[in-house]
Each structure stands twice: as C-alpha cells, then as structure tokens.
Amino acid sequence: MNRKWKNNDKVKLVFHYGFHIKPMPDDANVLAIFYGPTLLAFETSSELILKGTQEEILKNLSVSGNNEFRLEDGGEIYSLRPLYDINDESYGVYATIRNY
After folding, report:
1. Which residue in 12, 30, 60, 99 has the fewest CB atoms around it within 10 Å?
2. Structural domain tally of the chain?
3. pTM of the entire structure?
C-alpha cells in the first residue's frame, strides 16, 4: 500500500470464511469440520454420530457467536468451537455419518 501514513491510521483485514468438511482418507463417513483454516471441535463427551450427507451437514452449520458455531442434525443441536479454544472440556473432533 503506497500512501503517506498518519498517526492512528489503521489497516483492517476481514476474512470471509466458509465451512468445509475433510473426510478421513480411509473412511469417507468419518469427517472433521473446518471453518476456513480452523478445525472445529464438538463440545461433547460421547461418540458423534451424524445423519445425512456431507452437503446437508454443511447447510446446517452456522456461526452462533464469536468463536462459537452450531450444527443442527437429526433433531440434535451440537455446539462447536475452534480446537485451539478448548482447554479442560470434553470434546470430539471426528464425527461419523450413519443414516440408520
């Protein structure tokens, strides 16, 4: 950027991220969810079983706050946060798609 800078000038970067899914190489039904480059973790202590297709799961993801995300799937509502934001809570990174 070529300009003459003054005191208190600021540069603001805005990134427009989207959700995407990365399946495991050996099992396309086991997946991790990302928001941009950030791996998301489910706030749970149990096994994660999701229903539907990867496309349906992506449609049902939303940003619910600052570093808080939500997935509605099969009548359940899941809370997710960036993995780097998890400290002492139980969490899961991988979910399995099962449609039965």
Report:
1. 12
2. 1
3. 0.83
